Amino acid sequence: MTPEEAALARRPANAPAPSSEGSLDPEVVEEIRAGYRMVEADRLRHNAVTNNAIDDLALNRQALSQVDDHFSHRIRSRGVTNQKKSGRCWMFAALNVIRPQVIRDHGMEEFEFSVAFLQFWDRMERANLFLESVIDLRDIDYLERDWELLNRWGMEDGGWWNYLAALVEKYGVVPSSVMPETHGSSNTATMNLVLQRLIRTYSAKLLNRHADGGTMAELRAIKSEALAEVYRFLVINLGEPPTEFEWRYRRTTKPDRSDPEAEMRTVTDPALGESESFTPKSFRKRYVGCAMSDFVCLYNDPKNELNRHYRFDRARNMVDSENMGFVNVDMDVIRQASIRSIKANEPLWFAVNMGYDQSRELGIMQDKLLDYEALFGIDLTLSKADRARFHSDVSNHAMALMGVDLDSEGRPKKWLVENSWGKEQGDEGFWSLHDDWFDEHVYTVIVHRRHVPDEVLAYFEETPTVLPAWYPGAAGVLA
């Protein structure tokens, strides 16, 4: 049976036949044409937008007049990371949340975790998850939705906090100097494409062997062969992840330069610590003191009931980890938990839709920053709930909240955001996120349990409602 015949077979017998009613026929087109005359305002708009970038024309200068770079509470941070041409924002954001405390508590001049190390194991885990899913779905019709979603999401870069938390708990962490970035880690499109082809090649072998009557042991043997090839491929692209390494760091303590003979008496650097031997897990224990399980996910989805526990189906990167879960709460609960965390000098991982009203050049996120309505004379009013209904406003980027500017009554005016797009983007890598934008386009924050009210924490103990894998936002942040 062809795909077309299969589609017709699934069509209900009483389905209406195609109709010309509602089509864009010549009479309708002629009516629209006859009803329009270019007025002077549209002529000006036409001249402007055909000679200039639309965002330059739509930039709301009145909104810019309200901008300053002052924050009443700001977490100190050193250095700005750069994910480059990859979708690893969720990794960078999570490690950027942990990094300031590591620097502060250990008196470091600077420090950065290796993202490539966790990226390696994420690729391995996702390859394993994909192959295991193929075995699980080996008898499914290739036109079914579960199969389509598996292949759509295959080996993409995007992910959630729980993906990173599971990787850190299972594999540990290492400094960036121990497993540095490579061209493939920072420019993932081709690497992912080849990896996806490799996985699908072995997936076809799995399905063909199953069709020929192969045993589960034979399928597992093919899977083991596939994973060995994936490991080899990743080592070629990213380097082999260390199992043990020597490492030391430079402290902020400087040698005493007031003694003119100091340089003559010693050739040692008193700011440089002794080299120590670590495994990734022992390094994680030493420098990431908190358990990743101590953090919870607060979410704001106006299409679902508030104060309920939910999970996204298939929102994980490992066979042996849980799907992404959250409690759906009002934005003010998210806002107050975020304020408490920042006041405690603890940054937050958070996820947003970066496709609305933000400027990479200026480092500003503000509602109506780009005034397309005034520029084109149109109405673009759409609520957060309606944007979710049309799958047009879901989380697509993760960053770190590093500060807040509170007014005299303790209400936030704006938030300080550390991005992972390098110092050339935004205000030297930082964005000012205004509170009206926070309401509209922030969806998720990851916050330590101690900053969340007990009555909200209690919802996490309830049996979660499982949302399907195709639910808006379930695929994870991608940018």
From TrEMBL:
Supply the alphabetized keyword list: Aminopeptidase, Hydrolase, Protease, Thiol protease
Q: Say yes or no: keyword Hydrolase present.
A: yes
InterPro entries linked: Papain-like_cys_pep_sf, Pept_cys_AS, Pept_his_AS, Peptidase_C1B
Position of the signal peptide: none
Check the record and name the Gene3D superfamilies matching this protein: Cysteine proteinases
According to the UniProt entry, which residue ranges have a biased composition of type Low complexity?
1-18
Q: What PROSITE patterns does UniProt report for this protein, alphabetically?
A: THIOL_PROTEASE_CYS, THIOL_PROTEASE_HIS
Classification via Pfam families: Peptidase_C1_2
| PANTHER family referenced in this protein's UniProt entry, alphabetically | BLEOMYCIN HYDROLASE (PTHR10363)
Name-wise, this protein is Aminopeptidase
Instruction: State the species of origin.
Output: Haloferula helveola
Q: What is the lineage of its organism?
A: Bacteria, Pseudomonadati, Verrucomicrobiota, Verrucomicrobiia, Verrucomicrobiales
